[in-house]
Specification:
Blueprint lengths: L2 E6 L2 E6 L4 E4 L2 E2 L12 E6 L4 E6 L3 E6 L4 E5 L13 E8 L2 E6 L5 E4 L4 E4 L12 E6 L5 E5 L2 E5 L7 E2 L15 E7 L4 E6 L6 E4 L2
Parallel strand pairs: 4-8
Antiparallel strand pairs: 1-2, 2-3, 5-6, 6-7, 7-8, 9-10, 10-11, 11-12, 13-14, 14-15, 15-16, 17-18, 18-19
Length: about 210
């Protein structure tokens, strides 16, 4: 393509490669979403129908129509355990009409793009405080990976309870849990490669 879409702290911009021009194409559909400051966009998921789903900082999930430049933000309006305005860390596509959502101040939840509603998890992650969920991802095996308070949990298909993934060095002597920095899936090797803060090695996990 001859252009790039950019998510920024001042909305969504369109950069044209050939002309080297950068334009802001971002206007609000619902004026209640417009505040004294620009909407901070932390992540984009671009779909084939021309809609961009994004995280609006301290507000919730929004939808942007690239053809019109119009966006709308969806707050939690349901009477559930989730707050109205959601501080979202990350989101990950569950299927064509749902996202897994990691929240900073509440348990993870699911957002439905058809109903525009948020639902708390039915699964139980931990008996501990589940705030400060910093990341959430699915893999090709159907597992759901969640980072809560810098601890790594895995939810497997058809199981209602998440389990903790222990993090310690096998080669080295220290057994102190580390802060997870990043994890990558290698499709060819069928293995996860993880990096942890203050660690002197790379952690390798199989898909089991």
């Amino acid at each position: 393509r001859n252009y790039l879409w950019l998510s920024t702290y001042k909305g969504i911009y369109l950069f044209k490669k050939r002309s080297h021009t950068l334009n802001r194409r971002f206007k609000v559909y619902n004026k209640a979403d417009s505040t004294g400051v620009d909407v901070r966009i932390n992540s984009l998921d671009i779909r084939d129908d021309g809609t961009f789903w994004f995280i609006a900082e301290s507000q919730g999930i929004g939808c942007y129509e690239s053809k019109t430049g119009v966006y709308q933000i969806y707050h939690n309006k349901e009477k559930n355990s989730l707050p109205k305005y959601l501080s979202i860390s990350k989101f990950s596509r569950k299927n064509d009409h749902e996202y897994f959502v990691a929240l900073q101040t509440s348990e993870p939840c699911i957002f439905n793009v058809n109903t525009k509603k948020y639902f708390p998890f039915a699964e139980k992650i931990s008996a501990e405080n589940m705030q400060n969920t910093s990341d959430i991802k699915t893999d090709v095996s159907g597992n759901l990976w969640v980072v809560v308070n810098y601890r790594l949990f895995i939810g497997q298909p058809n199981k209602k309870i998440f389990k903790t993934i222990p993090v310690h060095d096998i080669v080295y002597e220290d057994k102190i849990p580390k802060v997870l920095k990043n994890v990558l899936w290698d499709e060819e090797d069928k293995k996860y490669y993880a990096g942890f803060d203050l660690s002197d090695g790379v952690f390798v996990y199989d898909q089991h």
